Amino acid sequence: MKRLNWGLIGGGRGSQIGSVHRIGAQADGNFALVAGALDHRPDEGRSYAIELGVDEERAYGTWQEMLGGERNRADRVDLVTVATPNSTHFEITKAFLEAGFHVLCEKPMTMTVEEGEEVVRVAERCGRTCAVNYCYSAYPMVREMRAMVRRGDLGAIRLVVANFSHGHHADGGDVGNPRVRWRYDPALAGASGQMADCGIHALHLANFVTDDDVETLSADFASCIPSRELEDEAMVCYRTAGGVVGRLWTSSVAVGRQHGLDIQVFGEGGGFRWASEQPNQVMWTPLGGRTQIMEKGEAGLSGEVVGLSRVAIAHPEGFPLAVANIYMDLAATIRGDTREALPTAVDGLRSMAAVHATVASAKMHGTWMDARPPMFR
Amino acid sequence: MKRLNWGLIGGGRGSQIGSVHRIGAQADGNFALVAGALDHRPDEGRSYAIELGVDEERAYGTWQEMLGGERNRADRVDLVTVATPNSTHFEITKAFLEAGFHVLCEKPMTMTVEEGEEVVRVAERCGRTCAVNYCYSAYPMVREMRAMVRRGDLGAIRLVVANFSHGHHADGGDVGNPRVRWRYDPALAGASGQMADCGIHALHLANFVTDDDVETLSADFASCIPSRELEDEAMVCYRTAGGVVGRLWTSSVAVGRQHGLDIQVFGEGGGFRWASEQPNQVMWTPLGGRTQIMEKGEAGLSGEVVGLSRVAIAHPEGFPLAVANIYMDLAATIRGDTREALPTAVDGLRSMAAVHATVASAKMHGTWMDARPPMFR
Amino acid sequence: MKRLNWGLIGGGRGSQIGSVHRIGAQADGNFALVAGALDHRPDEGRSYAIELGVDEERAYGTWQEMLGGERNRADRVDLVTVATPNSTHFEITKAFLEAGFHVLCEKPMTMTVEEGEEVVRVAERCGRTCAVNYCYSAYPMVREMRAMVRRGDLGAIRLVVANFSHGHHADGGDVGNPRVRWRYDPALAGASGQMADCGIHALHLANFVTDDDVETLSADFASCIPSRELEDEAMVCYRTAGGVVGRLWTSSVAVGRQHGLDIQVFGEGGGFRWASEQPNQVMWTPLGGRTQIMEKGEAGLSGEVVGLSRVAIAHPEGFPLAVANIYMDLAATIRGDTREALPTAVDGLRSMAAVHATVASAKMHGTWMDARPPMFR
Amino acid sequence: MKRLNWGLIGGGRGSQIGSVHRIGAQADGNFALVAGALDHRPDEGRSYAIELGVDEERAYGTWQEMLGGERNRADRVDLVTVATPNSTHFEITKAFLEAGFHVLCEKPMTMTVEEGEEVVRVAERCGRTCAVNYCYSAYPMVREMRAMVRRGDLGAIRLVVANFSHGHHADGGDVGNPRVRWRYDPALAGASGQMADCGIHALHLANFVTDDDVETLSADFASCIPSRELEDEAMVCYRTAGGVVGRLWTSSVAVGRQHGLDIQVFGEGGGFRWASEQPNQVMWTPLGGRTQIMEKGEAGLSGEVVGLSRVAIAHPEGFPLAVANIYMDLAATIRGDTREALPTAVDGLRSMAAVHATVASAKMHGTWMDARPPMFR
């Protein structure tokens, strides 16, 4: 099968996100990097792209140049990845969709719910795929959990508990550190700090695994480091469209928690749990039975996850290859074999709307709020 | 040192709680069982007491007989343990306190806040110790955590997360099981189900470790098994008197969680976590440093916990010997060396008041409530 | 059922082993401490016994006095526990057996194979039970493992791997510490250091769980701290009577390993593993299936282990209550309901013979040796 | 920096090893796949190479064609990876080295010690790098362990315990499975089964981490599935050139162990352990201190490992990116910045010589043998 043409915006030299996208896109030979606007400094971006094997004429200085250069080429890129600062996602994503490109956008897809609805509409109108990089949902064992829920192994779901709590912003003396500070500054981060940065991942993960959507919620926010204007700690209670009880805890001051994303789902027929720090296992307990350790690559997993692992059972695979699974789904989708597990603009919108609802609820002392985007109410 | 005289009410043949109290009271040679009213069936209780070595004349048929028989003896019992059904705790505890006995009462100390305040007043007036068996707080490593908080190892505490969630009442087909059903029936369990049964332990544990008290709270309850009138699932957000943010999750439908009691505390200077299923370790992470595994019995623990362990480092000690530590504290207190770590009627009252506040909050959609007993407001 | 009379030799004030035996013997109300010779200092031993509730006339100054005092009493002790220094076990045990007492001897039962054979013969001749405190074999989940092997869950056993390796004697600067030094001094410890101290437990455990006996072996010893005359590190390869392959590693310089006793057994139909630091779980993997976490107290365990646990599933029980299970077996056996899982003089002899075989093999560069005591060849 | 030209031999469509090498070589943009002889079926190999972006003229049918085609090109490949069946490694590796190419050879580098010595001599004579894919040694935390040993954190090393034991060949009914059977057939696997397949990795890892070499050894082999001519179970005791005591266990019938590679190292000043199933952590215990959890990506790791990780602390990285680290070292070495941590032909030879010594020792009932290749004695 011919490799697809891929373009990258952002992700310049030394950036972790750029490295992860390049590993992910190229891991399975589905995409070849043929165009890029990799840096906000045009010359630096161009020279780095050339170093990575991009032809000189497709090593662009800005995303606008790239849009102009690619839109009329016969061999134009099949997919554009947007890995720029958060506040620029909306504009770039929208522009490329409207020009007929498929887009993979980093999270958060947009800063506001209105922008999110706009992206959903544009993608639909243009008939292009707009994916959002909720990559935790692409770990094979996360996909397997969803398959188990759908197959009914847990029976009716009663309860989901998702956490994304770490301790990497717990140093009160570190307030001047720009890599930390912007996240709690409304001018740069928007309406929410920790919820928008991390809680949103837990929220998407919970929706994804339970194949359900948060509908109403109540939130309690705190700024454990008082100089922070936005929350660094949040607890959310919610109910889904399907009537499931949800609890979601996110924190950045939980010293000793490292990555800190995990999920537990409990149903009538059993429960399971998964943690991102050991992504290759799921602990599954059928009602009345023993806890079993499920392993990535074991015999008998559902068909849809088999291709998502590249090495045999018990050989660990990590975060960059979860991103590779997003690209695998994208390649299949672009080639016409749509993958419904791929997180799209609708997911980006729903999770952003829920984050905004937590902000509103927290301001009103935990009053329960509708968490759905207006267009889906 | 002479052994103290001990009497037990409840805890008859085959009861787990009776076995645990007998192991706990006698483990260190501090107490000798000399009196008992062990069963609601007088003959059965008397014969079992005699089998356990109690003299015939002190093998009582009822707690009232025991109260009458012991109150005027020169060698009367130094301590009475109340291990009867929950609804009888108040009456028995109050009667023995008023007759001048020290009492160890099983949790919950009372069914209502009013009764709890009454027990606090009676104990104070009579100058007797009324302890409550919040035995998780007596594990050596739990005591060590509190010592660390008090010593300032964590700096100012910011956040505490306590869970007591298990899956042993998750079987929807099990609604007729009397060992399960009464817990969710307001006629037998009172105002609360899972919060009063398990959440209350997590609440006491959090207060104990952080040396602080819950002040206000907001709760979300659910009956995941809909036929239950009382909650089997609850999430509580709270603030302490000291301004700490608290989150407390309790559930009995979390299939796959076994014991399910754990706590995490995060401060300016570090964080730690402990779980009752591995009670001999604490995971401690100083800010900016690595997570360290602290072991029961390791060199350098604070003096107050050294005597609470009976076997060398890495030889596990479990639940019954945590109860033995409650008795060790009681023996010392009765002999005049008061142990302030011993949970008393004030703790029994405070935790019961907080449970009642969660019930009220949950009924009002999570409205924040004062969690303190009226006498401490 | 009437309590049995129990006498203790050794285990004086402040000794851990004494505390553990007293908790163990009295935990289930089977034994009452009525006689004791608790200390090599007669007065100290007598006064401590009285403090523990022993009548003055049965608070003896020496084991010889106790033997003389008890042998002709109508209410003489039903069981004597020998918890004195290793080199005295043989003499005391033999004397009490010959006087018609049941004995529980601490390990090692004797210092030589010849003495071990003598104890076996004496116990048989006198028709008394001589138990040896291989208490790890009395954890409920260890008993369950043996039940699984016997029931055929693992099919024919192929391989057993047992380790007892810790790091508590790893400090080279600590050579003068008398609590450590004697273990590596042949004048005090006998022919072997770490094998006789710890390896012997792993050896018994492996034999117990697989219901088989080591038959031939090859050993490699090292003194990682060179000033030690006896080994602090040993690896043993062996074969059992049943043809099973064995590997046994024991070390006292393995810094970071805490208790360090664990076992893995692999058969045609599956494998399991257990570690003393988490004694309430077994990890069991049927061939071709997932690893399952078995829990002490779960439904469906074999009948013989049900009584060995005193608290519900997931409430941890530790080392002292494993010793209590030895006493529970002893009480049943003395009352006429013989418990074949109880470790006896034959086990004490077999394990001592195997230790001596490792010493001989290690001296001859790993030459394979017969590990059986002469009387069982 | 310009990308290097890379050629791959073997690793055709559907092969796991091919996928891993392609991910590894391209992950960091150091190598571009420009030539390949990917399959023993020439047409299939050519078409797959073209699909992966190789120019038609460099999509070769055989490795001999590739050697002929590349040797005289100005833009010839900078590195050839040999990922063919084991018995062909020697011939291909030697041929490419002699033609002046750098080579990365899959393990085992050769089938015999003599061939291994020949490769070492050829590589030296030709001045080319011959690397061997002992990729476990390229995990960042494994590199960090070696850095700690070299820096003296553990003081003089006393003891190393390495295991590579899994249960994936434990099914006695599976003897006809060709993916399993060849490993235990001397006609296909050579002199050793499990030692050559897995034990050799543990052996290299132990040598690598301790920066030392096995010198003498004693081995015990077993065929737990009796129809196997070669061993499926082995225990090796050894001593290193530096006087360290070694124990190495490898098995393929250990049901329930998944990947099963782990290592523990103990020195005068502390000990650590690492397991391939959780490759991002090291458990480190300084003598007299607490066990600490070291994390990939934490602050303060030694400089040489910083570049070996692509995502932030606690984002897991797995097996394919350990292989990528081998390629990163190769790229640096080829560009003139020699990386001494890269496993080379000398490592391939030493480990093969030790495997052959275990075979000889096991045949002679564990007689101690010289484990060094003749050229290094």
Fold and architecture overview:
4 copies of one chain form a homotetramer. Helix content of chain A is 34%, strand content 23%. With 377 residues, chain A is an alpha/beta fold. Chain A has a 9-stranded mixed sheet. A 5-stranded parallel sheet of chain A has the order 2-1-3-4-5, with helices on both faces. In chain A, a hairpin with a 4-residue loop joins strand 12 and strand 13. In chain A, helix 4 packs parallel to helix 5 and helix 5 packs antiparallel against helix 12. The radius of gyration of chain A is 20 Å and the shape is globular. Chains A and B meet through strand 6, strand 7, strand 8, strand 9 and strand 10 of A and strand 6, strand 7, strand 8, strand 9 and strand 10 of B.
Taken in chain order, the helices and strands of chain A follow as EHEHHEHEHEHEHHHEEEEEEEHHHE
Beta-strand residue fraction of chain A? 15-25%
Mean pLDDT of chain A: 97
Shape of chain A: globular
User: Nearest-angstrom radius of gyration of chain A?
Assistant: 20 Å
Largest sheet of chain A, described in full?
A: 9 strands, mixed
Work out the helix count of chain A.
12
Tell me which oligomeric state these chains represent. homotetramer
Computed structural class of chain A: alpha/beta
Name the chain pair with the biggest interface and residue counts per chain.
A-B, 42 and 42 residues
Number of strands of chain A: 14
Low-confidence spans of chain A? none
End-to-end separation of chain A in angstroms reads: 42 Å
Strand order in the largest sheet of chain A: 13-12-11-10-6-9-8-7-14
